[in-house]
Amino acid sequence: MSSASHSEIDARYRYACDIARAAASRAYSWYQQRQTLVVEHKRDLQDVVSEADRNVEALIKTLIAERFPDDAVYGEESGGEVQGAPFIWVVDPIDGTACFVNGLPNWCVSLAVVCDGEPVIGVVCDPNHQELFHARAGQGAWVNESRLQVHSATHLNEGLLGISNSSRTPAESVSRLISGLTEQGGMFIRIGSGALTSAWAAAGRLIGYYEAHMHPWDSLPGIVLMREAGGVTNDYLRNEGLKNGNPVLLANATLYPKIKALTDNRALEE
Predict the structure, then answer these.
(1) How far apart are CA 135 and CA 195, in angstroms?
(2) Which H or E run includes 94?
(3) Range of the domain at 90
């Protein structure tokens, strides 16, 4: 349980929503002139970054420093020192950059706040659909002004499962899941933004979400959203998840063990 006061967390929650909207507006301006962007590759050909990513992350860091100068910021593009900080903002300025630079709307701004080792705030802003997904521990999850509720499915064939994968994990890890899912009459979707897909899962648009390895700036917002929408998640931050990443599984309490069994991923712990 966090030792921070409710007012301290509430202040950051409100500000995180404001920051996400401002960052999404800035990102959308870049999106409209994406043909002018210089795109670079990071770890592999699917891992891209642009001037827009760096510019939007700089805006987010500036806004956080103006209001909460003692808080740490851990960003996808610039990293950050988090040791000893009471509050850690975990930031992906544009999750889904490959979609962004190719004119596809499957991208978002992703923000989370960790306090005393627990994610307490999650915000995902999708400017293309004018949707702000937001949650604060103990206060529910919302999209704009509407309350979120996890999907009520009891069987895997009752909806779409969000899935993603990266070159960090063997292809077999996701192909095994897809095979087991389709054998049970299920269907899946992959859109290119894990943070946005996990927000959709929390909103009950999908029956769940799974990724064999996910970075904290993409995973933590959806984890807070799913928990506050009444769903179940694994303990993502165990074994230095903030530093190294971990698998992510989000679903309702009935489907969680069924999906987990199909993944055969021993790193998943609730």
Answers:
(1) 14
(2) strand 87-95
(3) 6-147
